[in-house]
């Protein structure tokens, strides 16, 4: 029963390498490659060992010391601490988009940061949560916090030394959950200080040195508009414990190595961040950053699960041949591959848009930069993409990882192998930072309130216009263009739909928009690969994805016939693929497109009133 132990998670990932090579400046990618390769080696060996040990030995809470003094101390297994040291001190994963680390002359773009995190996440999902929250907290403080707060606290969070600070966000309360407007934790002004009272029900990274806490100032209005953001240090400047208590740690299904808990405040000192009444908007900027990180981690889980399944199938014989040669196993691996590579394309495209949004902030006025969604296209685009990726990728990761466990058979269910840990961790993605329903509704809000659909569809349509001239992909690009026009009409008319009906279709519409952009990106990558390498391997992936997710109306879809040929294994292993091997599949997809167009035309002829919209 072979597994991936001892392999290099970066050097074996040609898909990631090609994305980075085609999008990063040449010199920057050349600088990054040795560090990514070193991290990839650790992911396949040391970090995998540490992650498995930390998962088997969850943290413990020590509320009081031997004299009865409140200490709120969470004891972590040494394996967790060593993983954190490697990630934060050796590689600077928390700091790299804020300060120069490794041998980089300046902070790296989000595109490269997420490449490091994506590789790391294939070994360790749980630790990425507190690292992500620290990274996001730095961003929030630098954007909304005072100079004094940044000097006192942000500089310690961005540090790569052993005395660094970690960050967290304490938002969820038991009576509200995702309905943050019902939060009751109260902030009162006591002299010159703000003090916090109340309870937070779910606090990830509960042992953090600093927590950004949503609280309602005494006398403030109800709802989210009355909430303010406060930075609460664990230890006060005089060395004493702040006035809060970790009531207990949560017993979780997955992410066991990271401490989540409940917190009671009894006059804890909190420093106001930004203005009163802007706390929820500021917190949402942190949540959106965390949502993208969540999608990144779920994408990493899919990649690890696929590679585990492929490695197992390549090394295990059954019924007279290796499993990878069996038709149904190839079909299973191909389904896993489609979701994994679509999610990877979406993740790194979004990271690029994130970089463009950051660059655009420099041209805005200070009041515009202070808005939770600055009024420029890239910021509005990111506002839409982050909940979309979180909602779709994290949900699909559950299925992909479950398929990976089944592909390994009974051994996959045994914790000697990594599949069980991947499956447990994957469940968190669809819950943390908003369930699928919550983020689907947030996608609608981004369209309705922030006009985020305009840059989304403009980007897709520009990419497709560039592809339509290629005779191989032209009919497919034109089909996607038609789908884009249809989806854009739906988005423009959302405000005309009854609110209940609009909400009822929110998840379906979120998935439709995701599939549209993912298919466009895969087709764009396929075109680039054909031009640069003369290989049509990514075209096979694009065809499979479009047929699976966008052509269901033409009837039941069968797995592509190329899976039964040598090209099938080449697609799975990212080897060279000739166009001729895809002729039948390409023709079938084009035929299905024509069938779908004809069916729609017949429907319009039968019901002329539906022609508009």
What does the model show?
The protein is α+β, with helices and mostly antiparallel strands and 613 residues long. Among the domains are: 167-279, Butyryl-CoA Dehydrogenase, subunit A, domain 2 (Beta Barrel), CATH 2.40.110.20; 453-610, no CATH class. It has 20 helices and eleven strands. The chain has helices at residues 14-23, 26-43, 46-56, 78-90, 110-121, 128-144, 147-157, 279-315, 327-361, 366-370, 377-407, 419-429, 436-450, 453-467, 474-492, 499-504, 506-533, 537-550, 566-573, 583-606, and strands at 60-64, 70-75, 167-170, 186-190, 193-204, 210-217, 228-233, 244-249, 260-273, 317-318, 321-322. The strands form three sheets. It has a five-stranded mixed barrel with strand order 4-5-9-7-6. A hairpin with a 2-residue loop joins β4 and β5 (193-204). α5 (110-121) packs antiparallel against α9 and α6 runs antiparallel to α7 (147-157). The longest helix has 37 residues, at 279-315. The radius of gyration is 25 Å and the shape is globular. The model has no long low-confidence stretch (mean pLDDT 93).
């Amino acid at each position: 029963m072979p597994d991936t132990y001892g392999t290099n998670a970066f050097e074996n990932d040609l898909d990631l390498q090609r994305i980075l090579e085609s999008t990063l400046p040449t010199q920057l990618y050349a600088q990054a490659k040795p560090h990514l390769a070193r991290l990839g080696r650790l992911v396949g060996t040391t970090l995998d060992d540490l992650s498995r040990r930390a998962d088997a030995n969850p943290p413990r809470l020590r509320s009081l010391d031997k004299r009865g003094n409140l200490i709120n101390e969470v004891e972590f297994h040494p394996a967790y601490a060593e993983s954190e040291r490697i990630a934060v001190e050796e590689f600077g994963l928390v700091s790299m988009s804020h300060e120069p680390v490794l041998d980089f002359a300046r902070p790296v773009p989000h595109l490269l940061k997420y490449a490091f995190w994506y590789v790391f996440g294939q070994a360790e999902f749980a630790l990425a949560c507190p690292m992500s929250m620290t990274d996001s907290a730095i961003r929030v403080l630098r954007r909304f916090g005072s100079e004094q707060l940044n000097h006192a606290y942000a500089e310690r969070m961005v540090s790569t030394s052993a005395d660094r600070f970690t960050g967290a966000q304490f938002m969820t309360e038991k009576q509200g959950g995702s309905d943050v407007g019902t939060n009751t934790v109260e902030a009162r002004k006591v002299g010159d200080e703000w003090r916090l009272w109340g309870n937070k029900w779910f606090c990830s990274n509960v042992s953090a040195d600093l927590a950004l806490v949503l609280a309602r100032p005494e006398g403030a209005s109800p709802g989210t508009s009355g909430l303010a953001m406060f930075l609460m240090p664990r230890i006060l400047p005089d060395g004493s414990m702040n006035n809060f208590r970790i009531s207990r740690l949560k017993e979780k299904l997955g992410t066991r190595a990271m401490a989540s808990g409940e917190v009671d405040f009894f006059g804890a000192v909190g420093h106001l961040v930004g203005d009163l009444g802007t706390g929820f908007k500021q917190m949402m900027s942190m949540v959106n950053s965390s949502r993208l990180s969540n999608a990144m981690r779920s994408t990493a889980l899919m990649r690890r699960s696929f590679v585990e399944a492929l490695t197992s199938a390549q090394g295990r014989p059954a019924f007279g041949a290796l499993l990878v040669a069996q038709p149904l196993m190839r079909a299973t691996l191909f389904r896993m591959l489609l979701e994994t590579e679509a999610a990877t394309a979406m993740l790194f495209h979004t990271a690029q848009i994130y970089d463009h949004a950051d660059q655009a902030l420099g041209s805005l006025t200070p009041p515009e930069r202070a808005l939770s969604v600055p009024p420029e296209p890239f910021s509005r685009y990111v506002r839409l993409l982050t909940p979309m990726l979180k909602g779709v990728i994290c949900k699909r990761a559950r299925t992909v990882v479950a398929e990976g466990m089944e592909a390994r058979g009974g051994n996959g269910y045994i914790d000697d192998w990594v599949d069980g840990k991947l499956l447990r961790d994957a469940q968190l993605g669809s819950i943390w930072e908003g369930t699928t329903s919550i983020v689907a509704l947030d996608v609608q809000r981004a369209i309705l309130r922030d006009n985020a659909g305009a840059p989304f569809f403009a980007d897709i349509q520009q990419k497709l216009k560039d592809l339509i001239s290629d005779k191989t992909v032209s009919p497919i690009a034109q089909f996607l263009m038609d789908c884009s026009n249809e989806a854009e009409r739906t988005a423009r008319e959302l405000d005309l739909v009854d609110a209940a009906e609009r909400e009822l279709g929110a998840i379906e519409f979120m998935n439709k928009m995701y599939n549209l952009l993912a298919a466009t990106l895969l087709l764009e990558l396929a075109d680039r690969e054909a031009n640069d390498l003369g290989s049509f391997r990514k075209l096979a992936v694009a065809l499979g994805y479009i047929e699976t997710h966008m052509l269901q109306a033409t009837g039941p879809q069968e797995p592509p016939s190329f899976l039964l040929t040598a090209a099938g294994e080449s697609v799975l292993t990212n080897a060279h693929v000739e166009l001729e091997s895809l002729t039948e599949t390409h023709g079938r997809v084009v035929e299905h497109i024509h069938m779908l167009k004809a069916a729609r035309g017949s429907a319009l002829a039968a019901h002329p009133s539906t022609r508009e919209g």
